[in-house]
Amino acid sequence: MEVLELFLSAVMAAAFCLSPSLVHAQDQSGFISIDCGITEGSSYNDKITGLRYISDENYTDAGVNKDISPKINKTDIDKQYLNLRSFPDGNKICYTLKPLRSKNKYLIRAGFLYGNYDELDDVPRFDLYLGVNWWATVTLFDASDRFTTEIVHLLSSDSIDICLVNTGFGTPFISVLELRLLDDKTHSNVSQLVFDRLGLALSDSIRFSVDVYDRIWSPFPFQYWEVKQTRYAIKSPDDDKNGVPNAIMQGAAVPINQSDAIVFYFSRDDPTTQFFLYMHFAEIENLPQNQTREFNIYVNKTLWSGPIVPKYLQRTTVSSISPLKGTDFTVSINKTINSTLPPLLNAIEIYLVHELLQAETYEDDVHAVMNIKSYYKVKRYWQGDPCGPKTARWQGLNCSYDAYDPPRIISLDLSSSGLTGEISPDVLNLKMIKYLDLSNNSLRGSIPDFLSRLPYLRVLNLSENDFSGSVPSELNERSKNGTLILNVEKNKLLCSSDCKNKAIVPVVATVIPVLILVLIAVAVFWFCKRRNQGMVNNSFICMA
């Protein structure tokens, strides 16, 4: 018996999303569509999708705009991929998307096309991060290759950082970044990537506005089946959150030979990979009473679901309750002995569980260092999470990492950074800091007492600044007993101990000479006065 085979490969997919529903999708509320690299302040409506794309000026403050090489064939390239933003400087560059809705799911999609924009003909490779967690490695085969990846993520705050991390294999860049608000409460809150999303009867890819949630559906490349179509709308279940478009469900694939099964395969090299599988069915033929369509679904020869009798013009979705685990899967849809018709299949969705295990930096530490950055207008590539990922933490910072607990900032080095003003009070909120270096700047004012209230501080370098007044007594005491290494050298107006005692010396040195002169003058005055009194009688005058 011949078998209809649907070959699904991990190579074909970068990453995609769950089957969600979107809030106010038709008018693009909850959509952010960024064409990276277009002129600041500019925007446009895409001629094909109608989506409105804007500049990335409000989402990142790094990088340079570039156009792909004129030598690249642009015939089939979407407008969003004709330009890009390149990041030649900095180890980690982030787009901060906000304000968003905390505790809501978002579909996030990123696209990349190198296009030999730098005329080096050297395709880069770099990592893409969702906050502090690895999302994907951007791998392009040549200058015209396009890499697209999607993820569905439940936000824990009102913003999300999408970061590009330089791994030493060329300059990171990005072409397009898209975000869509979802209203999906039916599936797991674990972040998921799309392995494949296919419409079996499609002849071309579709997305917004055919799919009001702007999911991208692709046709299956091997059409060894008969396609059935209907012009009638397909009804979704009342409690449905999948929202599969009518354009997908109005077509179905059936084996040409009625005795055949529908079989497809998917696999991954990593044995720890976990999959979620969704299959969508709708009977699109009004069957006579003597005809039935009934089938079972097998995964690796084990009954997975069934028997299934798809309803006329109504969608039935069969999905995983728990993820499938393994490397190779064979899914077979077989007609039952009671069925007079072969099985059908309208659409397939396969998702990869993507665990985000790295915790974000402790929130109070983040607020503190962000305020310090703003207070001093720090001119460094401080973007995204301060401590994550470990290989791309902020320059001048060191952090402690303890299993899955939030990292804590334990070291801050802002030496020779052009700092002015006083020491920011936000330093006190870095409760776990051990090492603080603010040397060789133009900081002024007194050294604040609150530095002595940092319990874990072991090294404090305030040398080569313009501090004045006295060093707080508690800092001096800790320096003397060896619990703190304190450096306050080359602060001309600063007293290392009590300035009052030091002030006695210059005061005494000034007052005593003046007092002596006054006493001499008084003595001379009285001497002359008495002489004059004596000389008057003798007609002499003493001129003093």
Automatic annotation (TrEMBL):
Note the topology in the membrane.
Answer: Single-pass membrane protein
Query: Residues of the signal sequence?
Result: 1-25
Q: Which domain of life is it from?
A: Eukaryota
| InterPro entries assigned to the protein according to its UniProt record, in alphabetical order | Leu-rich_rpt, LRR_dom_sf, Malectin-like_Carb-bd_dom
Could you list the residue ranges that cross the membrane? 503-528
Localization, UniProt: Membrane
Question: In this protein, which residues make up the domain named Malectin-like?
Answer: 34-352
Is the keyword Plastid assigned to this protein?
no
Keyword annotations for this protein?
Membrane, Signal, Transmembrane, Transmembrane helix
Q: Mind telling me what this protein is named?
A: Malectin-like domain-containing protein
Q: Does the keyword Cytoplasm apply?
A: no
User: Origin organism of this chain?
Assistant: Salix suchowensis
Indicate where this protein is primarily found: membrane
